[in-house]
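Dear colleague,

Following up on Tuesday's group meeting, I ran the structure prediction for the two-component complex that the binding team flagged. I've pasted the input sequences exactly as they went in, so you can double-check that nothing got truncated or mislabelled along the way. The structure tokens for the whole assembly follow below. Feel free to forward this to whoever is handling the docking comparison.

Inputs:
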Amino acid sequence: MTDLTAEFWAAASRRELVRPVCRDCGRNFFTPQVACPRCLSENWCYRPSSGRGRVYSATVVHKAATPGVAVPFRLGIVDLDEGWSMLARLVGGPDERLPALDAPVRVAWLDEGGRVLPAFTEVVA
Amino acid sequence: MNLADVAVVGVGVTPQAKRSDRGSLQVALDAAKLALADAGLRHTDVDGIAARWPGPGGTMLAPGSADWSTLLGVPLGWIGDSYPQGVPALVDAAGAILTGQATTVLITGGQAGVLGGGRVAAYTRPGNEFVEPYGAFTAAHFALVAQRHLARFPHAREGMAEIAATIRNVGAANPEAVMHGRGPYTAADVLAAPPVVAPFTLLDLCLASEGGAALVVTTLERARDLPHHPVVLLGAGMEWLRQQYVDPARYEQVWTIGAAAAAKAFGQAGLGPSDVDVAELYDVNSLEVARQFEALGFCGAGEGTDFARAVGIGPEGKLPTCTDGGLLSFSHIGWGAPTLKLAQAVRRLRAGADVALAAGAGSGAQYYNLALLGRAR
């Protein structure tokens, strides 16, 4: 955690998903950066996200790169409705299947050793 | 002087192994000595060095960092903290030579004594707060790219397995490869191997091994007096899209990474893909080989695996690829691995090939670089 990201994790601990939005050009971006990657303005702030989006890509990890990580687990890139994206675990959902590309998802929360992490669950229409 | 007045005159590859009992600095020095001996030069002939790790010239102030001018016992006219090794280091060396900063540059690096105990190299899983908690690692980033490609071109899965088997079988027959004697494999073996991260099985993915690799670079004029037939730099190109392994790679942005670099390199060389005799592509996984054929202009989108099958990428094929067994079977030594690609390209050119391509990194890494090397006329 850094000065740039403390607010993201503080919101996550309340199970609220937030993302950086540029006050000058309106760009949504992630991960948090010193300046907006479109207009280079440092005048940005965190705003709440709906937590809804679609799966951009998804995979199943069968063998972890570090000891102590339980496998298998599902990992994905989610495109949020506000126009930003993030890497996250995919959890729950119908039959705990790997969501298809473009499947709708909503944010869920994982409590891992006291740290609350955003994750995403497939939504059945 | 022009680009093609820069020559690679020495290659040094230490014994490669799954785990080494030496340290990274030791294998970098071992490789340097081998490359200098191969070049017919002494360490006192070196006046420039590109060795990202351990830091050259004492630029890394941490305890244990290597001061290469002290180590070699010679003052240096130029040092380059090249990131990573391989093509970027060769381009740095060429720049130093062409601007008169150095006449003989040593490129060396590798890793040893850093793997084992369930660990993978640290650069493959950055301690970033938006990556590490999710358990992401290098192969997973590449897998997230591959999943979208296979959704478009499902037939590529079989071709990926054929590519992995072909390259691994080259390594199985190479006594210097880490996986010497492991194989031969069929495409069915690759598909049936233990899954690591979808769509990749263990046999689709490269090694993580230990060893060193080095090159000696100088002017063509000087190279004419040295033992081996000179190999010259015909062209090079680099692309840097985004910091690797933090923000995830997006398929539509990264699938063709290398296209601009290839256009630049082929333009400098006055050549096209059909002129390449040997392709030392960066085979971090089986699909990346097919991807590079597409991105670099050897074939069209979605045709990479079909191209590999049609042209023949094995020893008897029209376009031998990863001819030492590649990262899949020969060795992958972290930042030093791209130098292995150049070393193998040089060997093939000395053996009679006219044009060789050597490359580094790929789609999931979000950067790419390549060089075209040629047998001097």
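Chain B touches chain A at residues 118-120, 124-125, 128-131, 133-140, 143-145, 147-148, 151, 194-199, 202, 246-248, 250-251 (CB under 8 Å).

Cheers,
M.
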